Amino acid sequence: MKFYVRKRKQAPAVIIVALIDILIVLVIFLMVTTTFKQQSALKLALPESTQAQRSGAQESPPLVVTVDPKGNLRLGQEAKPVTVEELKNDLAAELAKRPDLKLAINGDEGAPWGKIVKVMDAAKTVGIKAVNAFTKEPAAAH
Predict the structure, then answer these.
(1) CA-to-CA separations, 21 to 12, 34, 56, in angstroms, rounded
(2) How far is CA 28 from CA 21, 31, 107, 110, 140, in A?
């Protein structure tokens, strides 16, 4: 009588290299498809407006001037502190680079109105035609 010896089956092996390749492709896909929102460097309480609009993704981003509650001016996304005179010079330099420059004033609710007017005057002095203000939509009344 002849007995057949069963060969032991090998346990299934997980190929780690293939899994790492797939994970890298997924991470790259998620990084490419994710949109990042620009956060301002300062926490401001924006005033409410019934005419508040969201800016479109296709528009060129405006140059942002931030006015904090104490009346300090900061320019751009990096929030560089500036005076009114420095602001005029910086706005003129930016306008020379981009003739269709738009300015957005990001002012706190408690910001001194006089500082906001000075920013608007500086923009008009250097020739910027589009000046807007950041606002938030009013909270829905329940």
Answers:
(1) 20, 20, 36
(2) 11, 5, 37, 43, 39
The CA distance from 43 to 137, in Å, is 17
Q: What angle do CA 36, 38, 41 make, to 5 degrees?
A: 140
pTM over 0.90: no
Separation CA 86–CA 83 (nearest Å): 5
What is the distance between the alpha carbons of residues 73 and 82, in angstroms, rounded to a whole number?
A: 6
CA distance 41 to 114: 22
**Beta strand pairing call for 73-75 and 63-67:** antiparallel
Residue 140 token pair: 């829905």
Tell me: the pLDDT tens digits for 46-64? 666 665 555 554 467 788 8
